[in-house]
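Write out the 3D structure for:
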Amino acid sequence: MDAYDISKNYFNKRIKITLNNNVIKYGVIIKQNREGNTTISWKFVSNNNANEYQKTGDDKLTEIILQNDIQEIEHQ
């Protein structure tokens, strides 16, 4: 999945991510992590943690998903 496509079409929107190991996650991508001009990962908040994260901003409620681990993204 192309990082530009993710940032343009899926950033800060409710999504379903399928990882290369076939794990499926539902939530929101809230931050793009880059090294130079290359996206290396995304900060992700699951649907289960979204309300609490909005209230507290606690990074313990987020996870990092590596760009290379993403097989597919769809809108929920």
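The chain has one domain: 3-75.
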